[in-house]
Amino acid sequence: MQHLDGERVMCRDLAAAPLPMLDGAGAQALRGASELTTQQADMLALSEQLISELNQADTLVIAAPMYNFHIPVQLKAWIDLVCRAGVTFRYTEQGVQGLLNTRKAVVVTTRGGQHKGTPHDMMTDYLKTILTFLGIADIEFVYAEALHMSGEQKQTELQRAREQLEALAVIV
User: Fold this and answer.
1) Which of 13, 89, 109, 121 is the most exposed place for a label (fewest CB within 10 A)?
2) d(CA 160, CA 128)
3) Which CATH number does the domain housing residue 158 bear?
4) Integer Cα distance of 169 and 172 in angstroms
5) Which structural domain range is residue 51 located in?
6) Local confidence pLDDT in tens for the 172 residues of the chain
7) Number of domains in the chain
């Protein structure tokens, strides 16, 4: 936990401390199976911790590079641990209802090429779907693209992303 201008900031680096991948036994634990193994109990406790962090957050900031047109596997592992029926969402007669207290999400994404708004950008729609599914409807995307392209194009895109972050008052 860090403090920044009087605000509490919780940072979870999924690359430095990867989460376990969800498997069949883990899925059973997250769905409320009885008589859990130690590994299942640990996964359930981790899921509860991650969900608690989300429920305490006013704003969720996700930094996600685009890998092969999608999110990194570490972020997918986090999503699998926080998407829990009856805990972070529920099914109703009117459809899915998100249950998170988090009010806003900012997704900062880097890309080697220019993919925003093209069929190659599968991660934007995926993350919008997941976040709204959980109840976070206020989602802002910040794109830093063309990072493997010419120097001028790269610098222009980085400056655009910096300006957008400053406007959002998000410190990266």
Assistant:
1) 13
2) 22
3) 3.40.50.360
4) 10
5) 2-168
6) 444 555 677 899 999 999 999 999 999 999 988 899 999 999 999 999 999 999 999 999 999 999 999 999 999 999 999 999 999 999 999 999 999 988 999 999 999 888 888 899 999 999 999 999 999 999 999 999 888 887 788 888 888 888 888 888 644 4
7) 1
